[in-house]
Design a protein that fits this description.
2 strands, 127 residues, two-stranded antiparallel sheet, mainly alpha, 38% helix
């Protein structure tokens, strides 16, 4: 994990792994299972109903659908492209009007390199 940001209705991440498509599928399956269990424990029936109602018709093996199908992977071809992707990713909460500066968003790797910060998830260095 090189960078990440979680927003109210989506997330962005810069990831690298052998078999990345399998890693993403496992991530989606695991997080969906755990989040749905949490929603059931908290009796969030209204949200569970939404996840059930908007489930894709061909998803017969599951009662709910948390993640949209597919992902949008892009190869990062160099440092300049990496900086562009990092800026886009970390500025997402700013563009949506949630914070004034990227490092103010708690659910992001933007604040990881600030002095004295204790990041929620330590990222791997690029290269």
């Amino acid at each position: 994990i090189h960078a990440w940001v979680i927003l109210d209705n989506h997330l962005h991440a810069i990831l690298a792994a052998p078999g990345l498509s399998r890693v993403l599928a496992d991530f989606k399956r695991h997080t969906a299972r755990r989040l749905i269990e949490h929603l059931q424990t908290e009796n969030c029936d209204w949200l569970l109903n939404q996840l059930q109602y908007f489930r894709a018709a061909h998803k017969a093996e599951s009662e709910h659908q948390l993640w949209q199908e597919g992902s949008h992977p892009q190869a990062i071809l160099g440092d300049e492209m990496m900086l562009q992707k990092l800026e886009y990713l970390h500025n997402n909460p700013v563009k949506r009007g949630l914070v004034a500066s990227p490092e103010h968003w708690l659910y992001s790797s933007a604040h990881e390199w600030l002095p004295g910060s204790t990041p929620a998830l330590r990222c791997d260095p690029w290269r």
